[in-house]
Here is the input.
Amino acid sequence: MLNVGGAFHNKRKIFGAIVYNQTLYAASIWAHALEFDMNKTTLRKPQRIIAQRIAIGYRMVFTQAILVVAGIISVHLMDLERLKSHKDRTRKDTLREKSFTK
Here is the structure.
């Protein structure tokens, strides 16, 4: 998408959400790989581009600043949140199964 004109903010936000969800697909499986800074940096690059397109920003803006303006949570933080919710869900399922077997 172009920085000038083009789709409105809401449409840009939807396009960004699609890519964001595709990035976080099966995040509970590869979450442990984000312990290394190199992997975080690899995920930040496309997220930065998406945020620049949503906020109609330019290249000279800091990554964290453009994420705030675009209203996007950093990928590695969202990944940790999804991992925690996945663990909680599986823990509840195992507790439920144990209660049925008693």
Q: What stands out?
A: The chain has one domain: 9-101. Helices lie at 9-23, 27-30, 37-55, 63-70, 75-101. The first helix runs from residue 9 to 23.
